[in-house]
Protein backbone atom coordinates (compact mmCIF):
# COMPACT_ATOMS: atom_id res chain seq x y z
CA UNK A 1 0.00 0.00 0.00
CA UNK A 2 2.41 2.69 1.20
CA UNK A 3 5.93 3.15 2.50
CA UNK A 4 4.67 5.04 5.56
CA UNK A 5 5.97 2.29 7.80
CA UNK A 6 9.47 3.20 6.67
CA UNK A 7 9.42 5.32 9.83
CA UNK A 8 9.51 2.17 11.92
CA UNK A 9 12.33 0.54 9.97
CA UNK A 10 15.04 3.06 10.83
CA UNK A 11 15.81 1.67 14.29
CA UNK A 12 14.15 -0.67 16.81
CA UNK A 13 12.65 2.21 18.81
CA UNK A 14 11.86 4.61 15.99
CA UNK A 15 8.08 4.15 16.16
CA UNK A 16 8.30 5.45 19.72
CA UNK A 17 10.56 8.29 18.54
CA UNK A 18 7.99 9.17 15.86
CA UNK A 19 5.16 9.09 18.41
CA UNK A 20 7.04 11.38 20.79
CA UNK A 21 7.90 13.78 17.99
CA UNK A 22 4.36 14.05 16.60
CA UNK A 23 2.86 14.53 20.06
CA UNK A 24 4.66 17.90 20.32
CA UNK A 25 5.03 18.74 16.62
CA UNK A 26 3.79 22.31 15.94
CA UNK A 27 2.79 21.39 12.39
CA UNK A 28 0.54 18.55 13.47
CA UNK A 29 -0.87 20.21 16.57
CA UNK A 30 -1.06 23.79 15.35
CA UNK A 31 -1.68 23.40 11.60
CA UNK A 32 -2.84 20.01 10.34
CA UNK A 33 -5.19 18.79 13.06
CA UNK A 34 -6.93 22.15 13.67
CA UNK A 35 -7.49 22.61 9.92
CA UNK A 36 -9.13 19.20 9.58
CA UNK A 37 -11.32 19.70 12.64
CA UNK A 38 -12.39 23.15 11.49
CA UNK A 39 -13.32 21.84 8.05
CA UNK A 40 -15.45 19.05 9.53
CA UNK A 41 -17.43 21.62 11.48
CA UNK A 42 -19.70 20.26 14.22
CA UNK A 43 -17.91 17.14 15.49
CA UNK A 44 -20.08 16.04 18.39
CA UNK A 45 -22.26 13.06 17.51
CA UNK A 46 -20.55 12.35 14.17
CA UNK A 47 -19.06 9.03 13.14
CA UNK A 48 -15.63 9.62 11.59
CA UNK A 49 -13.19 7.34 9.76
CA UNK A 50 -9.46 8.16 9.94
CA UNK A 51 -7.25 6.65 7.20
CA UNK A 52 -3.61 5.94 8.00
CA UNK A 53 -4.27 6.70 11.63
CA UNK A 54 -0.75 6.08 12.94
CA UNK A 55 -0.80 5.95 16.73
CA UNK A 56 -4.30 7.43 16.84
CA UNK A 57 -3.68 11.02 17.91
CA UNK A 58 -6.23 12.61 15.57
CA UNK A 59 -8.99 10.09 16.41
CA UNK A 60 -8.51 10.82 20.12
CA UNK A 61 -8.76 14.57 19.51
CA UNK A 62 -11.96 14.06 17.51
CA UNK A 63 -13.43 11.66 20.07
CA UNK A 64 -12.65 14.11 22.88
CA UNK A 65 -15.04 16.49 21.11
CA UNK A 66 -17.80 13.90 21.05
CA UNK A 67 -17.23 11.93 17.84
CA UNK A 68 -17.22 8.16 17.43
CA UNK A 69 -14.02 7.40 15.53
CA UNK A 70 -12.53 4.39 13.78
CA UNK A 71 -8.91 4.61 12.63
CA UNK A 72 -7.16 2.14 10.37
CA UNK A 73 -3.50 1.69 9.47
CA UNK A 74 -1.52 -1.17 7.95
CA UNK A 75 1.42 -0.60 10.32
CA UNK A 76 1.01 -3.12 13.12
CA UNK A 77 3.41 -1.24 15.39
CA UNK A 78 1.42 1.98 15.08
CA UNK A 79 -1.89 0.22 15.69
CA UNK A 80 -0.46 -1.52 18.75
CA UNK A 81 0.46 1.86 20.22
CA UNK A 82 -2.87 3.38 19.20
CA UNK A 83 -4.72 0.66 21.09
CA UNK A 84 -2.47 0.98 24.15
CA UNK A 85 -3.17 4.67 24.85
CA UNK A 86 -4.69 5.18 28.30
CA UNK A 87 -7.08 7.87 27.04
CA UNK A 88 -8.93 5.28 24.93
CA UNK A 89 -10.86 4.07 27.97
CA UNK A 90 -12.69 7.40 28.16
CA UNK A 91 -13.24 7.81 24.42
CA UNK A 92 -15.29 6.22 21.64
CA UNK A 93 -12.33 5.12 19.49
CA UNK A 94 -11.54 1.89 17.66
CA UNK A 95 -8.30 1.02 15.88
CA UNK A 96 -8.04 -1.54 13.10
CA UNK A 97 -4.99 -2.96 11.35
CA UNK A 98 -5.93 -2.80 7.67
CA UNK A 99 -5.16 -1.32 4.28
CA UNK A 100 -7.70 0.76 2.34
CA UNK A 101 -8.08 -2.22 0.02
CA UNK A 102 -9.32 -4.52 2.80
CA UNK A 103 -10.73 -2.27 5.53
CA UNK A 104 -14.39 -2.97 6.24
CA UNK A 105 -16.92 -1.54 8.64
CA UNK A 106 -20.60 -2.38 8.45
CA UNK A 107 -21.85 1.10 9.32
CA UNK A 108 -21.60 4.36 7.38
CA UNK A 109 -19.50 7.33 8.48
CA UNK A 110 -20.40 11.02 8.37
CA UNK A 111 -16.86 12.09 7.44
CA UNK A 112 -13.42 10.67 6.72
CA UNK A 113 -10.00 12.18 7.45
CA UNK A 114 -6.32 11.64 6.74
CA UNK A 115 -3.25 13.68 7.67
CA UNK A 116 -0.08 13.34 5.58
CA UNK A 117 -0.96 9.82 4.47
CA UNK A 118 -2.10 10.01 0.85
CA UNK A 119 1.33 10.98 -0.46
CA UNK A 120 2.72 7.68 0.79
CA UNK A 121 0.65 5.84 -1.81
CA UNK A 122 3.04 4.05 -4.16
CA UNK A 123 1.24 5.15 -7.34
CA UNK A 124 -2.02 6.71 -8.52
CA UNK A 125 -3.84 3.37 -8.39
CA UNK A 126 -2.78 2.98 -4.76
CA UNK A 127 -3.87 6.57 -4.12
CA UNK A 128 -7.29 5.78 -5.60
CA UNK A 129 -7.70 2.94 -3.09
CA UNK A 130 -8.00 5.48 -0.27
CA UNK A 131 -10.84 7.27 -2.05
CA UNK A 132 -12.54 4.00 -2.97
CA UNK A 133 -12.41 2.92 0.68
CA UNK A 134 -13.83 6.27 1.80
CA UNK A 135 -16.61 6.06 -0.79
CA UNK A 136 -17.61 2.57 0.38
CA UNK A 137 -17.92 3.75 3.96
CA UNK A 138 -19.18 7.33 3.78
CA UNK A 139 -22.82 8.30 3.91
CA UNK A 140 -24.12 10.07 0.80
CA UNK A 141 -22.83 13.62 0.94
CA UNK A 142 -20.05 12.67 3.36
CA UNK A 143 -16.69 14.33 2.80
CA UNK A 144 -13.12 13.03 2.90
CA UNK A 145 -10.89 15.79 4.34
CA UNK A 146 -7.17 15.19 3.84
CA UNK A 147 -3.90 17.01 4.46
CA UNK A 148 -1.30 16.21 1.80
CA UNK A 149 1.96 17.45 0.37
CA UNK A 150 0.91 20.42 -1.74
CA UNK A 151 1.06 19.62 -5.49
CA UNK A 152 2.11 23.23 -6.15
CA UNK A 153 4.92 23.27 -3.57
CA UNK A 154 8.39 23.97 -4.99
CA UNK A 155 10.39 25.66 -2.19
CA UNK A 156 12.72 22.74 -1.55
CA UNK A 157 15.60 24.98 -0.46
CA UNK A 158 13.68 26.91 2.21
CA UNK A 159 14.14 26.58 5.99
CA UNK A 160 10.86 25.41 7.53
CA UNK A 161 12.28 25.27 11.09
CA UNK A 162 10.97 21.78 11.93
CA UNK A 163 10.88 20.33 8.42
CA UNK A 164 13.29 19.94 5.53
CA UNK A 165 11.98 19.01 2.07
CA UNK A 166 14.33 17.55 -0.55
CA UNK A 167 13.30 16.72 -4.11
CA UNK A 168 14.39 13.24 -5.18
CA UNK A 169 14.15 11.43 -8.49
CA UNK A 170 10.79 11.52 -10.27
CA UNK A 171 7.96 12.60 -7.98
CA UNK A 172 9.63 11.45 -4.78
CA UNK A 173 10.34 13.80 -1.90
CA UNK A 174 12.31 13.24 1.30
CA UNK A 175 10.80 14.86 4.38
CA UNK A 176 13.06 15.27 7.41
CA UNK A 177 11.51 15.99 10.79
CA UNK A 178 13.84 18.35 12.65
CA UNK A 179 14.39 19.18 16.29
CA UNK A 180 13.32 22.80 16.64
CA UNK A 181 16.25 23.77 18.86
CA UNK A 182 19.19 21.75 17.52
CA UNK A 183 17.86 21.27 13.96
CA UNK A 184 19.00 17.64 14.16
CA UNK A 185 17.03 15.12 12.09
CA UNK A 186 14.79 13.08 14.41
CA UNK A 187 12.80 11.19 11.75
CA UNK A 188 12.67 11.06 7.98
CA UNK A 189 10.47 9.55 5.31
CA UNK A 190 10.36 9.21 1.54
CA UNK A 191 7.03 10.26 0.07
CA UNK A 192 5.53 11.35 -3.26
CA UNK A 193 4.38 14.69 -4.61
CA UNK A 194 1.38 13.84 -6.76
CA UNK A 195 0.05 16.42 -9.19
CA UNK A 196 -3.36 18.00 -8.66
CA UNK A 197 -4.69 16.23 -11.75
CA UNK A 198 -3.50 12.90 -10.35
CA UNK A 199 -5.44 13.55 -7.15
CA UNK A 200 -8.50 14.36 -9.26
CA UNK A 201 -8.09 11.18 -11.29
CA UNK A 202 -7.59 9.04 -8.18
CA UNK A 203 -10.67 10.61 -6.60
CA UNK A 204 -12.85 9.90 -9.62
CA UNK A 205 -11.43 6.39 -9.96
CA UNK A 206 -12.53 5.90 -6.37
CA UNK A 207 -16.09 6.98 -7.32
CA UNK A 208 -15.87 10.26 -5.39
CA UNK A 209 -16.10 13.87 -6.48
CA UNK A 210 -13.10 16.19 -6.00
CA UNK A 211 -14.03 19.50 -4.34
CA UNK A 212 -10.56 21.01 -4.62
CA UNK A 213 -7.71 22.38 -2.52
CA UNK A 214 -7.41 24.85 0.36
CA UNK A 215 -4.39 26.65 1.78
CA UNK A 216 -3.37 25.98 5.38
CA UNK A 217 -2.67 28.49 8.12
CA UNK A 218 -1.81 27.79 11.74
CA UNK A 219 -4.61 28.15 14.25
CA UNK A 220 -4.59 31.38 16.30
CA UNK A 221 -3.30 29.63 19.42
CA UNK A 222 -0.34 28.16 17.51
CA UNK A 223 0.45 31.49 15.88
CA UNK A 224 0.48 33.19 19.25
CA UNK A 225 2.55 30.44 20.88
CA UNK A 226 5.25 30.09 18.19
CA UNK A 227 5.26 33.60 16.77
CA UNK A 228 5.08 35.01 13.25
CA UNK A 229 8.70 34.19 12.37
CA UNK A 230 8.16 30.47 13.01
CA UNK A 231 5.17 30.28 10.66
CA UNK A 232 6.39 32.72 7.98
CA UNK A 233 7.85 30.17 5.54
CA UNK A 234 5.00 27.69 6.07
CA UNK A 235 2.33 30.30 5.39
CA UNK A 236 4.21 31.81 2.47
CA UNK A 237 5.29 28.67 0.61
CA UNK A 238 2.45 26.32 1.65
CA UNK A 239 4.23 22.93 1.74
CA UNK A 240 0.97 21.31 2.83
CA UNK A 241 -2.56 21.72 1.52
CA UNK A 242 -6.04 20.41 2.28
CA UNK A 243 -7.72 18.26 -0.35
CA UNK A 244 -11.45 17.60 -0.07
CA UNK A 245 -13.53 14.97 -1.86
CA UNK A 246 -17.21 14.18 -1.42
CA UNK A 247 -19.33 11.08 -1.79
CA UNK A 248 -22.11 11.88 -4.24
- N-to-C SSE string, H for helix and E for strand: HHEHEHEEHEEEEHEHHE
Q: How much helicity do the residues have?
A: 25-40%
Strand order of the largest sheet: 3-2-1-4-5-10-9
> In the residues, how many domains can be counted?
1
> What is the CATH third-level topology name?
Rossmann fold
Beta-strand portion reads 25-35%
CATH architecture assignment: 3-Layer(aba) Sandwich
Mean pLDDT: 93
Helices and strands: which structural class? alpha/beta
Cα radius of gyration in angstroms? 17 Å
Attribute tags:
248 residues; alpha/beta; Rossmann fold; 3-stranded antiparallel β-sheet; 8 helices; 34% helix; globular
Can you walk through the features of this model?
This protein is of the alpha/beta class and 248 residues long. 34% of the residues lie in helices and 27% in strands. The protein has helices at 14-24, 26-40, 57-64, 76-84, 124-137, 196-205, 220-226, 228-237, and strands at residues 47-51, 68-73, 93-97, 109-115, 138-149, 163-167, 172-178, 185-192, 209-214, 240-246. The strands form 2 sheets. A 7-stranded mixed sheet has the order 3-2-1-4-5-10-9, with helices on both faces. α2 (26-40) packs antiparallel against α7 and α5 (124-137) crosses α6 (196-205). The radius of gyration is 17 Å and the shape is globular.
Summarize the structure.
Strand 6 and strand 7 form a beta hairpin. This protein has eight helices and ten strands.
Question: How would you summarize the topology of this molecule?
Answer:
Elements (H helix, E strand, L loop, with lengths): L13 H11 L1 H15 L6 E5 L5 H8 L3 E6 L2 H9 L8 E5 L11 E7 L8 H14 E12 L13 E5 L4 E7 L6 E8 L3 H10 L3 E6 L5 H7 L1 H10 L2 E7 L2
Parallel strand pairs: 1-2, 1-4, 2-3, 4-5
Antiparallel strand pairs: 5-10, 6-7, 7-8, 9-10
Helix pairs in contact: 2-7, 5-6
Amino acid sequence: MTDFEGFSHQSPGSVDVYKAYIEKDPYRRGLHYPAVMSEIGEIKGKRILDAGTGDGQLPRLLAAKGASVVGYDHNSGMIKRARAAEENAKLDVTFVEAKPQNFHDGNRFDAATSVMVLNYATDVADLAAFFRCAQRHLAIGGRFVSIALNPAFSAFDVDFVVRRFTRLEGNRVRIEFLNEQSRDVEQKAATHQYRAEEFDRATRDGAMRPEGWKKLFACPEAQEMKGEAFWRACHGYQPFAMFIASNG
